[in-house]
Amino acid sequence: MDLIYNDHISSTFRIWELTSPWTGDHIKVPTKFIVGDLDLTYHTAGIQDFIHKGGLKKFVPLLDDVVVMKDVGHFINEEKPEEVSAHILNFIQKFK
Q1: In angstroms, rounded to a whole number, what is the distance separating the alpha carbons of residues 55 and 32?
Q2: Distance between alpha carbon 5 and the CA centroid of its chain, in Å?
Q3: Span 20-42, mean pLDDT?
Q4: Residue 46 bridge partners (DSSP)
Q5: CA 30 to CA 77: how far, in whole Å?
Q6: How many CB atoms lie within 10 A of CB 72?
Q7: pLDDT tens figures, 39-96
Q8: Could you tell me the pLDDT band of residue 9, with boundaries at 50, 70 and 90?
Q9: CA quadruple 68, 70, 75, 81: dihedral sign
Q10: How far lies 75's CA from each of 9, 54, 80, in Å?
Q11: pLDDT level of residue 3 (50, 70, 90 thresholds)
Q12: 42 near 36, Cβ under 8 Å?
C-alpha cells in the first residue's frame, strides 16, 4: 500500500514538473466546462465560487458555458454518456 502511495506522489510531482512551463497560461479556444454535482472536486473549498463567479473565466476567456450535471460524480462520460454526448454535440454544432 505504501509503495502505491509513494508511486502516486512521485507521479504527481512529475506531472507538475512537466506542465510547469504552462503555469498561469490561459486556454484560448472556445470551451464548454461540464462537471457533475456529486464530483468531490466540485465540493472542494472555493471551487464553486471560482467556477461560477468569474475565476475560471479569467483563465479561460472564451468560456462559452458551464454545465453542472445533476446526480453525477467525477466520471460523467461513464455515468451519463448520452447526456454528455448531447452537450458536446450541441457545443460543436455552434462552429459549423
Answers
A1: 15
A2: 24
A3: 91
A4: none
A5: 20
A6: 21
A7: 999 999 999 999 999 999 999 999 999 999 999 999 999 999 999 999 999 999 998 8
A8: low
A9: negative
A10: 22, 25, 9
A11: very low
A12: yes
Do 76 and 34 form a contact (C-beta atoms < 8 A)? yes
- Distance, in Å, from the CA atom of 33 to the CA atom of 2, rounded to the nearest integer, reads 35
| Residue corresponding to grid cell 486556454 | 27
Mean pLDDT to the nearest integer, 19-34: 89
Strands 31-36 and 63-69: parallel
Is the distance from CB of 96 to CB of 43 less than 8 angstroms? no
Beta bridge pairs of residue 66 = 33
CA distance 75 to 30: 22
CA dihedral 3, 43, 50, 77 (to 10 degrees): 80
Cβ-contact 58, 27 below 8 angstroms: no
Q: Which three cell numbers stand for residue 69?
A: 450535471
Centroid of chain to Cα 40: 12
